[in-house]
């Protein structure tokens, strides 16, 4: 199925393609270490099960879900989940480039949105729009109010006309700024949070892997990295591993502590793209 995405032309804006295509094997490679909290894991599993039972759902005239919104702080696995869904469904992932979508010319943003949706609803794929809030802001707020209101209206139409060939996934750190009308269009919603104790331990264990006498390092990382996102944990543990490699010594708690202080994890209240 991935083949068709390769042959169909991606729409362009300002001379460049509006999205990046990741083939199934790229997606599989990316998601090796995904840690999903229990609730989201169940939601994703059910989603997959339903998509594997299309005929039954047709027979009962129950529409299949195919519009997913994910929200929560940066570095908690929203983008990674899109890769995971694409890999599991063996569909290419089409990641929209937000900067090329949003245009200062009147009506151009809306027409770009239409182009990318027209593409995605005919070519089986997972269409992923990150930082979704940038397009789907409430119609009352923002500077270029009229232009954005038009874009939101186009987006609403595109979501309604999306059909069931492809999957649409959107991610945002700012759920409260989404237009309520847009919000209602999604059939599947997932909240992301900073890892709890159990998920943190699990993730740290995956990252450290077979690395010398790692138990002490693991305990220290679990203690110290409380309140960090998965993305921060990853960076800090990798930094610590590099230190250990340079010193030709097994990873220990001191490597973790030093890396943590050097890295200075991102405060979650500051919005950055992770
Ligand atoms: N839940 C997770 N499980 C495993 N790794 C994660 C998770 N969340 C984040 N990461 C790591 O951090 C990187 C950035 O995460 P990403 O999925 O882009 O976060 P978000 O989209 O929520 O900002 C990932 O590529 C991965 O290496
Ligand atoms: Mg992301």
UniProtKB/TrEMBL annotation:
Gene3D superfamilies: P-loop containing nucleotide triphosphate hydrolases. SMART domains: AAA. It comes from the Bacteria. GO terms for molecular function: ATP binding; ATP hydrolysis activity. Keywords: ATP-binding, Nucleotide-binding. Signal peptide: none annotated. Pfam families: AAA (PF00004). The keyword Signal does not apply. Residues 64-196 form the AAA+ ATPase domain. Belongs to the AAA ATPase family. This is ATP-binding protein. It comes from Saccharibacillus brassicae.
């Amino acid at each position: 199925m991935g083949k068709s995405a390769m042959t169909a032309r991606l729409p362009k804006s300002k001379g460049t393609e509006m999205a990046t295509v990741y083939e199934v094997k790229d997606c599989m490679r990316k998601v090796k270490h995904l840690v999903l909290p229990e609730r989201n894991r169940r939601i994703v599993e059910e989603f997959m099960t339903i998509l594997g039972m299309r005929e039954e759902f047709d027979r009962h005239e129950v529409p299949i879900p195919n519009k997913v919104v994910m929200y929560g702080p940066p570095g908690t696995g929203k983008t990674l989940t899109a890769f995971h869904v694409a890999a599991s469904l063996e569909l290419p992932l089409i990641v929209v480039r937000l900067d090329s979508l949003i245009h200062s010319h009147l009506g151009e943003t809306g027409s770009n949105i239409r182009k990318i949706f027209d593409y995605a609803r005919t070519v089986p794929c997972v269409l992923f729009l990150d930082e979704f809030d940038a397009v789907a802001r409430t119609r009352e707020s923002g500077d270029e109010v009229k232009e954005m209101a038009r874009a939101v209206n186009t987006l609403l139409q595109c979501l309604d006309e999306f059909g069931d060939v492809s999957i649409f996934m959107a991610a945002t750190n700012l759920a409260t700024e989404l237009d309520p009308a847009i919000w209602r269009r999604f059939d599947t919603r997932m909240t992301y949070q900073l890892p709890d104790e159990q998920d943190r331990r699990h993730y740290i264990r995956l990252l450290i892997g077979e690395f010398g006498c790692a138990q002490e390092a693991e305990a220290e990382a679990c203690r110290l990295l409380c309140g960090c996102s998965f993305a921060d944990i990853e960076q800090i543990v990798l930094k610590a591993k590099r230190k250990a490699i340079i010193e030709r010594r097994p990873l220990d708690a001191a490597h973790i502590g030093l890396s943590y202080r050097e890295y200075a994890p991102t405060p979650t209240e500051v919005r950055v793209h992770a």
